[in-house]
Amino acid sequence: MPELILHHYAGSPFSEKVRLILGYKGMGWRSVMVPAILPKPDVMALTGGYRRTPFMQIGADIYCDTALMCRVIESRQPEPPIYPEGIAGLAEILAQWADTNLFWAAVPYTMQPAGITHVLKGATPDMLKAFGADRAAMNPNLRRPTLPDGAAALHTYLARLEHLLADGRPFLLGALPCIADFSAAQSVWFMHLAPPIAELLGAYPKLQHWYQRVNAFGQGQFTKMTSTEAIEVAALGKHAPLSFTPEAGLAPGDEVTVTPTDYAHDAVAGRLVGLGQQEVVIARTDERAGTLHVHFPRIAFQIKKQTN
Ligand SMILES: N[C@@H](CCC(=O)N[C@@H](CS)C(=O)NCC(=O)O)C(=O)O
């Protein structure tokens, strides 16, 4: 089986979600470090323009967005499941809330002046400025809450999670962890990067114990790989089998772009080769990486047919 390669950086919450899942499942993986801000030439060679972190590579297949990556990880290593039977629907609904509402409450609040110096420890003023400019350009429509508004939202969300755990259950939806635990843990993990912000978690003792349990899964066994090596793997790699369910106006071979609809609106262009309710796959060729199949989820991505 070709190796699972995670392209990520240490301080990325969505990467932590995936690292913890790999830990829970006891999987082996290869680790490629990517830059936290643009430019990212080796990322672009593989994704064709998708700049968000993390993304996953298996041979010449590239998987964008953790919602899709976690599904692929589950099919590669079904045990222990992160979508356990009976609670899978609720688990995904709660995970989606944690990946959006909770994330956008916890991360900007942690990046306030009292937190950012801890999160980006050792960064020079120029580096801090470059980081701020990169994120502002990536998400120009983000309206940052005031600190009191941000604190109120974050406390409300953390109290909801504490309430879920009030009956003594070890994980958010019961006796076993599921995708929702990992999606929620990434935000709590990020708050811990800044001790003055993490203090706020003191008001939520059950949540803290829950987080210790999730954090104890670790990150699985990984070995490092350079981005140049990953590009060589892609150039020599095979593609996973594809399926195509035609939809109105979309046929195999169509030239399309796929673009995130929430933020980082960078279009990836290619030939449509896979389609279903859960994912869209496009083929594109890079001079170093060869022909790649780039996979995206359907939720929060727009497929647009090129007309010329
Ligand atoms: N919906 C995406 C969100 C990913 C995301 O926002 N990642 C952040 C880092 S945790 C990011 O891409 N930041 C900008 C960058 O790394 O270039 C997913 O689930 O993968």
Average pLDDT, rounded to a whole number, is 97
The low-pLDDT segments are none
The number of helical runs is 11
Could you give the count of β-strands? 10
Written as H for each helix and E for each strand, in order along the chain, the element string is EHEHEEHHHHHHHHEHEEEEE
Heteromolecules bound = glutathione
The percent range for helix content is: 40-55%
Strand content: 15-25%
Strands of the widest sheet, in order across it, are: 5-2-1-3-4-9-8-7-6-10
| Distance between the amino and carboxyl termini | 40 Å
| Overall 3D shape | globular
Descriptive labels:
single chain; 308 residues; alpha/beta; ten-stranded mixed β-sheet; 10 strands; binds glutathione
Please write out the topology:
Blueprint: E1 4-8, H1 13-24, E2 28-33, H2 41-47, E3 55-58, E4 61-64, H3 66-76, H4 88-110, H5 113-119, H6 125-138, H7 147-164, H8 179-192, H9 195-198, H10 205-215, E5 221-224, H11 227-236, E6 255-260, E7 268-275, E8 279-286, E9 290-297, E10 301-305
Parallel strand pairs: 1-2, 2-5, 4-9
Antiparallel strand pairs: 1-3, 3-4, 6-7, 6-10, 7-8, 8-9
Helix pairs in contact: 1-3, 1-8, 2-11, 4-7, 4-8
Write a brief structural summary.
By secondary structure, this protein is an alpha/beta fold.
Molecular structure report:
Strands 5-2-1-3-4-9-8-7-6-10 form a 10-stranded mixed β-sheet, sandwiched between helices. It has 308 residues and is of the alpha/beta class. The N and C termini lie far apart (40 Å). It is built from 11 helices and 10 strands. The radius of gyration is 19 Å and the shape is globular. Helices cover 43% and strands 19% of the residues. The model has no long low-confidence stretch (mean pLDDT 97). The site of glutathione has 12 residues, from helix 1 and helix 3.
